[in-house]
Amino acid sequence: MNFKQVVLITGSSTGFGRLFADTLARNGHTVFATMRDPGGRNAKNVSEIRMLAEKDSLPIYVLELDVTDDTSVERAVNAAVAKAGRIDVAINNAGYYLSGLEEAVATEQVQRLMDTNFLGPVRVNRAVLPHMRRQRSGVLMHISSGAGRVVLPSVGFYCASKFALEALAEAYSYELAAQGIESVIVEPGAYETSVFGNSVTAADEARTNTYGAVKEMPAKVNAALSSRAGNAQEVADAVLRIVETPAGERQLRYFVSPRNYGVEEINALTKQVQAKVLEAFGLAADTKFLKGKAAGSV
Ligand SMILES: NC(=O)c1ccc[n+]([C@@H]2O[C@H](COP(=O)([O-])OP(=O)(O)OC[C@H]3O[C@@H](n4cnc5c(N)ncnc54)[C@H](OP(=O)(O)O)[C@@H]3O)[C@@H](O)[C@H]2O)c1
Fold it and tell me: Which residues, including other chains, have CB under 8 Å from residue 200's CB and lie 6 or more apart?
């Protein structure tokens, strides 16, 4: 890599997002650590990040960004571009976990989940892409999950939100390659963050209670996930490696997990199948990455 990157991260108050900000900034990258409500619910996190940035002279700037709010997303992206002149990498990290038997999850809970986990990245990508297209370079990074490739009972809606994100991120990768922009997907397994503490549970207890022994599934799944959780710094180190990979050499998918339960095999098979699909539709040449050369340029 020949230059330091300008990186915008969503959901930087805690967990992965906070670690990504710290790890990237310590390696010389300029980081816009965005989060919702920096003057209220995240005021303590903001002051901790700012104090650390000042103490260790880290290039981290905090911006307000709520991924469920178009205006907030556009304002943050414009502020980052005004300050740094560009955005090289947008890390779609903000998200949360919803646990419970699917029938017991209220429709409004599903709408809120999709508004954050799926529509959040849609908003961020729509806001950053005009800048990346002008630059003729950039990386859209999507923090999906192993649960974006395999399905666990009582995690159906969370899986659905990450499966949706995977489909979108893959479509972006084909459409943007010719303009020198990459779309990549990071699929973490279970890692120690605030994710389980911040999770939402299915609202309809009355329905849950009619499921007999099956109603214990969410607790079993969550206990298994928490007990296997790895050190979240592993994911931050993987994100650093991806950010520092030269343009055009990044993979579409990176599975990062303390254990493999078949996701790598699914990814390898999908890669072969998708290559055939693109070939069959006559799209193979159009979806190739063009280094330093935008579509239509001479
Ligand atoms: N930890 C794991 O085992 C694991 C595994 C696979 C994938 N993931 C994914 O990794 C991502 C980060 O999760 P985490 O594990 O780091 O959990 P976390 O510590 O709970 O962090 C989630 C972050 O998302 C933010 N967020 C939620 N709604 C938001 C909104 N509307 N606008 C802006 N930010 C919002 C939270 O901000 P507030 O502080 O304001 O709530 C928080 O900063 C998520 O997408 C999650 O699905 C996690």
Answer: 96, 97, 98, 99, 109, 112, 113
Span from the CA of 222 to the centroid of ligand 1 (angstroms): 16
Supply the pTM of this predicted model: 0.97
Enumerate residues lining ligand 1, CB below 6 A. Answer: 10-11, 13-17, 35-36, 41-42, 66-68, 93-96, 116, 143, 145, 188, 190-191, 193-195, 198
Q: Is the pLDDT higher at 261 or at 291? A: 261
Catalytic residue, candidates 99, 137, 144, 257: 144
DSSP state of 5: P
> Taking Cα atoms as reference points, which of 90, 74, 124 lies closest to residue 6?
90
45-80 confidence digits (pLDDT tens):
999 999 999 999 999 999 999 999 999 999 999 999
DSSP string, 98-126: EES-GGGS-HHHHHHHHHHHTHHHHHHHH
Reported as a single tens digit per residue, the pLDDT across 12-21 is 999 999 999 9
Query: Is 158 considered catalytic here?
Result: yes
Identity of the residue numbered 19: L
| Torsion sign, CA atoms 39, 70, 195, 49 | negative
From residue 277, give the alpha-carbon distance in Å to each of 176, 249, 252, 284. Answer: 18, 22, 16, 9
Neighbour tally for 247: CB within 10 Å: 16
Q: What are the two backbone dihedrals, phi and then psi, of residue 182, each rounded to the nearest 5 degrees? A: -105, 145
In the residue annotation, 145 being an active-site residue is answered as no
Interhelix angle 15-26/233-243, rounded to 10 degrees, is 50
What single-letter amino acid sits at 75?
R
Atom of ligand 1 nearest to the CA of 66: 32
pLDDT at 13: 98
The answer to whether residue 172 is catalytic is no
Catalytic status, residue 261: no
